[in-house]
Design goal:
The chain is built from no helices and 11 strands. By secondary structure, the protein is mainly beta.
Length: 126
């Protein structure tokens, strides 16, 4: 019942910034009962965890590779989750996916997430 639509991807120079958005919609969506996350994937590699938060909570989690550079946040009024990416590196290039888990528990395992967006491409040039 939850639909996720990512936006904000694009081409950016190394060292630059980009902000991704994930708009959530659907009946029965509860702001404080879902965990939201960002994953990313490149060809030939499995989808990897980037960042997550509990919609109505304060706890966040980040992959070591992005900690200090990326920030996940949410705007409950807009039903939107954001991923602010700064100091981007070429290795950050990937398709970024928004995911939703139907429980207020953080998880880094992609198999624990119930809904996925279609992804948005982020390309960082050197």
């Amino acid at each position: 019942q939850v639909a996720l639509v990512e936006s904000g991807g694009g081409l950016v120079q190394a060292g630059g910034s980009l902000r991704l958005s994930c708009a959530a919609s659907g009946r029965a969506f509860r702001f404080s009962t879902y965990a939201m996350a960002w994953f990313r994937q490149t060809p030939g590699k499995e989808r990897e965890f980037v960042a997550a938060l509990v919609w109505g909570g304060t706890t966040t989690d980040y992959a070591a590779s992005v900690k200090g550079r990326f920030t996940i946040s949410a705007d409950n009024l807009k039903n939107t989750v954001y991923l602010q990416m700064s100091s981007l590196k070429p290795e950050d290039t990937a398709v970024y996916y928004c995911a939703c888990r139907r429980s207020p528990v953080l998880g880094i395992d992609r198999n624990h997430y119930d809904y996925w967006g279609q992804g948005t491409q982020v390309t960082v040039s050197s």
